[in-house]
Amino acid sequence: MSRDFEFKALLRAYRSGIISEQTFETEIRELENGGHAVNGNGSGGFRAFGKTYQTERAAVVSFLDKVRAGEANGGEAFAAWAEVCTTDCIRTGLRVVAEREAYHSRVFAQRLAELGGEQRAMTTEEGRKFTAYLGDRRVPDNEKLLKFVERVGKPEDAIKPICEFAELLKEDLGTKEALRLFAEDELSTAKWLYESCAALNAPKAESAKENEKRASM
Ligand SMILES: [Fe+2]
Predict the structure, then answer these.
(1) Is 123 within a domain?
(2) Is residue 186 part of a domain?
(3) Separation of 193 CA from ligand 1 center, angstroms?
(4) Do 101 and 32 fall within a single domain?
(5) Residue-averaged pLDDT of the chain
(6) Cα(131) to centroid(ligand 1), Å
(7) What is the mean pLDDT of residues 118-140?
(8) Are 128 and 70 contacting, i.e. CB atoms less than 8 angstroms apart?
(9) Fewer CB atoms inside 10 Å of the end CB: C or N, the chain?
């Protein structure tokens, strides 16, 4: 992997919550110091998300555990939002998203158990705050959509860490294939939220522009 590629992969992994701020900083420092970033599938361990794991399996176990915890929190967050959602046209869609997140968590927990991994990852403080925010009935739906879009970024970029990781897997083809489907689901969810955000915020943005125009006349 080139340094530039490694830096971008690290940044994406950090932004999507797969690695902590501390790991991100440590890895960046290592990169700056000319740290070796060869993806050593084989003798040198398995390199993913700016970390070197002893084996591909260890990387898979760690990934599945974090995603399992993150998706479970996502499921709760979107279910909570659906409960307080006042916009008829997105409420049922939010339930679809909540179910997707929850089943991802269940499937990955099952795969983790098959691999003999333990459930160690917990919901992060940020994740907890996000759930509380989405479940807050005082915050309007269009604002929640804006916040989500700001947090997740472009849908295609948001799923890159999953695709890149799946691409690296050479032994665990079962997880690799599941991750391809996971990425498609996440892309679909992110696109739908992106489009809903644009639709629910567009009239406001336009009228604000009109008001500005009128004010400048
Ligand atoms: Fe998700």
Answers:
(1) yes
(2) yes
(3) 12
(4) no
(5) 88
(6) 13
(7) 95
(8) no
(9) C
Q: Which residues have CB less than 5 Å away from ligand 1 (the ion)? A: 71, 74, 101
- For residues 7 and 49, state if they share a domain: yes
What is the model's pLDDT at position 24?
78
From residue 156, alpha-carbon distances to 118, 120, 152, 188, 191 in Å are 31, 29, 10, 10, 9
pLDDT tens track for 87-107:
999 999 999 999 999 999 999
**Mean pLDDT of all residues in 146-166:** 95
Q: How many angstroms does the Cα of residue 46 sit away from the middle of ligand 1?
A: 25
**For residue 42, what are the domain limits?**
1-54
d(CA 102, ligand 1 centre) in Å: 9
Q: Give DSSP secondary structure letters for 162-215.
A: HHHHHHH-SS-HHHHHHHHHHHHHHHHHHHHHHHHHHHHHHHHHHHHHHHHHHH
Cα 117 to Cα 110: distance, rounded to the nearest angstrom: 10
68 and 48 within one domain: no
The alpha carbon of 187 and the centre of ligand 1 are apart by a number of angstroms equal to 9
52 with 27: CB under 8 angstroms?
A: no
**C-alpha of residue 203 to centroid of ligand 1, in Å:** 28
Q: Ligand 1 center to residue 115 CA distance, Å?
A: 22
